Amino acid sequence: MIRVLLAEDQSMVLGALSALLSLEDDLSVVGTATDGEAALELVLTLLPDVLVTDIEMPRLSGLDLAARVREECPAVRVIIVTTFARSGYLRRALDAGARGYLLKDAPATQLAQAIRRVQGGGRAIAPALAEGAWDDPDPLTERERQVLREAESGLATAAIAAHLGLSEGTVRNYLSEAISKLGAGNRAEAAKRAREKGWL
């Protein structure tokens, strides 16, 4: 029996996934969570074989959750199930340690097969994304990404600096680098382009 933990912030989707996977003879849903922090606590407590998680979740994103699970419970395999059909997200998911990346519009049988494949040591990647994942590499450093995320929410340079514990000059440098790398005219445009590519 493969023990599965589900993390998804939309209750209806979470319930549907749980019900569908429970129909499989060899899969057992041992827990569910509606935010990333709760999911991490359950991973540490229940030690499931596979964690299936969304990307966009409160308190801890699915990508951050995958990285924490790899660090704290490396035996637990992670599969991302999302609406984001962007190669940038796939690259970041794989870099965070995810073994699978599927789209929510895929048939439920595909998720069950992916869980089995990942539990067996393989990978399960949405075919439409696998091809383009390495064609358009993410140019941002992790710190540039952090600063750009803060800028995207409308914070001024001083507020970003205070929040991240950096000097204002350093924040300006990171923003300038990000804007330049993305070929954007300003911080808002840079954030928009990075978000569209799946790099934020």
TrEMBL record:
Residues the record lists as 4-aspartylphosphate modifications: D54
Domain Response regulatory: start-end pairs: 3-119
Alphabetical UniProt keywords: DNA-binding, Phosphoprotein
One Pfam family this sequence matches: GerE
Keyword match Phosphoprotein: yes
Keyword Phosphoprotein found: yes
Domain HTH luxR-type intervals: 133-198
Alphabetized SUPFAM superfamilies for the sequence: C-terminal effector domain of the bipartite response regulators, CheY-like
PROSITE patterns referenced in this protein's UniProt entry, alphabetically: HTH_LUXR_2 (PS50043), RESPONSE_REGULATORY (PS50110)
The protein, known as: Response regulator
